[in-house]
Structure formats: structure tokens, C-alpha cells
């Protein structure tokens, strides 16, 4: 891939497509990678042997939840369950060396990784040579609380005593209101300094003023709510504003942002709005088409506004 391939979304397997990207040609990778915890086809990264896994719970059916399938119950005794984190690490290892190769020294990587398996992702990045810089929390401000009352189980068993005794107790998790964004950096040249790297590659520091513009602080917790435009195109669609914040934090105009798992193309859209070049990969035709049309929509809008502008002069 050379300059002619910039500002494009490619349909196909990211692991293969990455091989075609020139070494040290990318200024930032921003990607919401599969979390490896769902049961959707694009998120299954392991061999699954639990028959409960692929069903839909009655509550999910009733609520018309975005995740149509049950998700993996964490029971602690299943040998198959215990393999999932290791298989997730191996899956991360299948592409992370190419991420390292294609980035320029001092470039940042922001990875959305699920809370449950993020640690395996961090290990894969460290093993590939990245510096693990920080974990940023995206505060979504809203999230469904799904912990179930254990007393209801006892009720169904007609066990009045235990139902009363455990009335205030729930199983599951607290409201999952934050998502980790892992921040990695490709080390700069041996013996060099970060200042030298800034001059050579225009990478290595972060833009405090552009960050403050959105967040009004330099806290590593970013609060961004999804608007009506940030939902409905992909089950894990991220807000455009959040992607813009991260892109402006470490890149300048005309630099190149790569999203190897682009889904509906939110990171690429944000890059385009901010006048950065972009490259995106997506293996599901449905989401590839969505991403492509979101980008084309901006092109069309720009042409309309350019036309409106030129017809005024
Ligand atoms: C978590 S989603 C990204 C959603 C995105 N943040 C958005 O706002 O729409 C991850 C995407 O990676 C895609 N994917 C998974 N494995 C892939 C692979 N090997 N090559 C290309 N795309 C892949 C999935 O189809 C899915 O759409």
C-alpha cells in the first residue's frame, strides 16, 4: 500500500491486509478491536463448547437487546472457558507485530479492549515491543444494569428461607459504565530523545489544548455520551466525538490514522472530519458498506457546500 491507498476502506481480513502496509508509514492506530467476549460471529475468537452460549435469554428477547445472543456465562469450572483468555492473547499476537512494524517511532495506539480480557491484550502489545503508557477510562455515562436477584432463583425453587435471607443480593456485575482505552506507544530510536523524535516524525507528545477543548480538563477519564447519530449502525458503535478527541490528542492534520477493525467506520469518519488521512479494514460486508457510505456522505456534503460557496461568488 502506498499513498494511492490512503483515505480508503478495504474489505477483507485485517491480518492479511496489514502485510501490504508500508513499514513505518502510519502515525496512529485507533481501533475498537473485537473484545472476544460476545457470541456474535465477528466477536468469536475461540472454540466454544458451551451449549448455553449461543441461545438468547428470555430477558434479551423481551428487551430486543442489541446483543441477540446470551454471551458466555462465567462459571469458573469449565475448562473451555479457561482457554478463552489464552486464545484471545494468541489472537492479539497474530496481528500485533504488524501494528508495531507499520507505525512510525513515537506513534500512539489507542485500543478499546473489553474489561474482561484487556490484560491479555496488554501482554500481547508488551511482548511485541510497545510501551504500555496508560489506561484511559471512557465514561459512557449510561449503561444497562443487568445484575440479577439471587432471591428470584430461590423463589423459583420454592425455597422461601433462602429467598428471604438473600433478598438484597445480586449476581453479575456492577453497572458497566466505563470502558478501558489502552494507550500504547511505539518506542522512539535507541539513544534518541522524545524531542528528537518530535522533530523527525512529528510524534511523541500530546496536544493538551486540543484535548481540553473537548474535556475541559486533563483527566484521564473522558466522559462522552452517545448521541442519536452514534447508535444503530453497529452493535458496538462508538461516538464520533470520542474518536475525534483521541485523534486530536496525538496527531496533526495530514497524518495517517489506521483502524484495522473499523466496523461502521467511526474512527475513519472522525479522521476525515479532522483532515487526517485514514486507512480502514473490515471483514463483514454489511459493516464495510456502512463505513464506505458514511465516508462518501461527508464527501457529498463537502461537494454540496463547496458548490453552494462557489455559486455565491
Ligand atoms: C468492535 S467492532 C468495531 C466497531 C466500530 N468501533 C464502530 O464504531 O462501528 C470490530 C469490527 O472488527 C471486525 N473484524 C473482526 N475481525 C476482523 C478481521 N480479521 N479483519 C477485519 N475486520 C475484522 C468485525 O467485523 C467488527 O465489525
Please give a quick description of this structure.
The chain has 313 residues and is an alpha/beta fold.
What does it look like?
The protein has helices at residues 14-17, 58-63, 79-102, 118-128, 150-156, 160-165, 194-201, 208-215, 240-250, 266-273, 285-312; strands spanning 8-11, 26-32, 103-112, 131-139, 148-149, 170-171, 178-185, 221-223, 256-259, 277-282. It folds into 2 domains: 3-48 and 79-142 and 177-312, Vaccinia Virus protein VP39 (Rossmann fold, 3-Layer(aba) Sandwich); 144-175, no CATH class. The chain is 39% helix and 18% strand. It is globular. The structure holds S-adenosylmethionine. S-adenosylmethionine is lined by residues 13-15, 32, 34, 42, 234, 236-238, 261, 263-264, 266, 281-284, 287.
Describe the main β-sheet briefly: 8 strands, mixed
User: Per DSSP, what share of the residues sits in E-state strands of 2 or more residues?
Assistant: 15-25%
Number of domains: 2
Q: Could you say which structural class the secondary elements and strand pairing correspond to?
A: alpha/beta
Q: What integer is the average pLDDT?
A: 88
CATH classification class of the largest domain = Alpha Beta
Which ranges are low-confidence, i.e. pLDDT below 50, for 5 or more consecutive residues? 309-313
* Number of E-type strands: 10
Bound molecules: S-adenosylmethionine
Shape: globular
